[in-house]
TrEMBL record:
Residues 1-80 form the GST N-terminal domain. It comes from the Bacteria. Keywords: Transferase. It comes from Oleomonas cavernae. This is Glutathione S-transferase. One of its GO terms (cellular component) is cytoplasm. The keyword Transferase applies. It holds the Pfam family GST_C_2. The keyword Disulfide bond does not apply. One of its GO terms (molecular function) is transferase activity.
Amino acid sequence: MKLRFSPTSPYVRKVLIFAHETGLAAGIELVPTNVWVPETDIGTVNPLGKVPALITKDGTVLFDSPVILDYLDHHHDGARRIPLKGKERWSVLRLQALADGILDAAVSRLLESRRPEGERSPAWVERQRAAIIRGLDALEAEAAGFGEVLDVGQITLLAALGYLDFRFSHEDWRQGRPRLAAWFAQASARPAYAATAPYDPT
C-alpha cells in the first residue's frame, strides 16, 4: 500500500497512528505530497486535492481518513478498532466525528489566520475557536469512560489534541480539563504517537 501524506496533516497522523498501533505501518509506503504547490499531482489521485489518500495493493484509491481507517481495520490481525455493531460502534464513530470536528475547526482557523490581514474574518476565527472549546468541554465530560484499547475515536482524538499542541501551543487546552489532560498524557506516551510527530518538511 502507498499513502500520500504530509507530515503536518493531522488527518494523515491519525492514519499513521492507527497503522503503528495495529502493526500495519511497515507495509505502507509513505509518499510525501505537498498539496499547496502548483505542480502537485494529488488531484490525479484524489480529485479533492487532499491528503491522506491510500492506494491499496489492487490500485484502489481511498479517501478521506475515516474511510481509510475503516479499510485498514479490516486488514490487521488484532482486535477491531471500529466495533462492528451495537452501541459500542456508534459510540466510537461519534467520538471520531467529534474529534474530526475539532480538527476541522482548528485547521480552518489556522488557514484563516494565514490570509492577508485585510482579508481575514475575526468572526469566522471566533466561530472556529468556540467550536473547539465546546468540543473539548464535551470530551472532558466523557474522558473518564475511554477504554484501554485505542479505538478509532480515541486515535482521532489523540491526533486532534496533538494538533492543538502543534499549531496552538500558546493556548492551553488542558486548563480546566484535568480528565482529558490525564488521558492525553497517558495516550501520548505510546510509541505510535512519538513515531508520527509532525515536522516541517522544508
